[in-house]
Amino acid sequence: MWTLSFISEEDLTNHVKATIEKYGEKLESFDLKRFNKNIIDPIKLIFDKTVYQATWEEIVSNEIFRQRDKSNNNDIGYFHQRIFSYIDKCRVPDNGKEGGWDVIFEDSDGIKLPDGSVVHRIYVEMKNKHNTMNSASAGRTFIKMQNQLLNDDDCACFLVEAIAKESQNIKWETTVDRSKVSHKLIRRVSIDRFYALVTGQEDAFYQLCMVLPKIIGKAVKTMNDSTVPNDTVVDELKALAGKQKIKDKDIAIAMAVYMLGFGSYNGFDS
Questions:
Q1: Which CATH class is domain 76-222?
Q2: In what order do the strands lie in the sheet with 169-176?
Q3: What pTM, to 2 d.p., does this model score?
Q4: pLDDT tens digits, residue range 148-161?
C-alpha cells in the first residue's frame, strides 16, 4: 500500500530511474586502466591498507567508490531538485529559464512564513550541503534574491539545503561586500522544512526517506545490467602480482600497485 500522498509511486519510481541514469559513465565498470587514469598514489594505498588492516579487495573497492563519488553530487542534486516537478504547486524551470531558479512554489491561497508574513510565491536556490558555497558565491546568491524581491513584492526567496546543520527555517544572514546583510523574506531552510511547507505535512521528507531504499532497489532491478558494475581491478592486480618473482603474495600485489604510479621510476623500471 502506497503511503505518500504528495507523490505517486509511479512518479517517484520514474524519478529515481532518471536519477540513476544520470550517473551515466560512473556506472561503467572499472578495469585497471580506468582505475589508474589519473595515476593513483600507491604510498597512500599501502598506508591505508596497513593502518586500517584491510584487504586489497577492500582498499581497491574504497578507492573505486571514492573516484565514482567525486562526481555524484550533481546527480543527487538532480534528485533533490527535479522531484518537486511532481509535487503540487511546484515547478522546476528549465536551465536558465525564469531567472534560473531551481524550484518555484506558488500558492494562490498564500504561503505563511514563520514570522507571520504571507506571500504567494517562493523562489528557491537549492544546495546539497550547507558548506558548499564560499563567501563570494553566497554573496552573489543573496544579491540575486534581493533583486527578485525588488521585482516581485509578493514573494520570498529560500536557500534550501539538503544537508543543513539542523532543521531550520530562519532569516539568512551572510556577508556581501564585507557587510553583514539579511532580510526577513530571504531565508535559509533545511529541506525537511521546505517539504513540510509545500506538502502541508510536517514529516513529508521523513516519509520520503522511509520509502526511498525500497524504490531505489526496485528501480535498479528493472533497469538493464549496465547499472551493476563489474569491476576487474583486483583480479588484474593479482594477475600482475603473479608475474612477479616474489613469494609473499601480499608483497607481490603491493609491487603491482607500486608499478601503477612508479613504473618509470629508478629501481622500479627494472
A1: alpha beta
A2: 90-91, 103-112, 118-129, 155-163, 179-190, 169-176
A3: 0.82
A4: 999 999 999 999 99
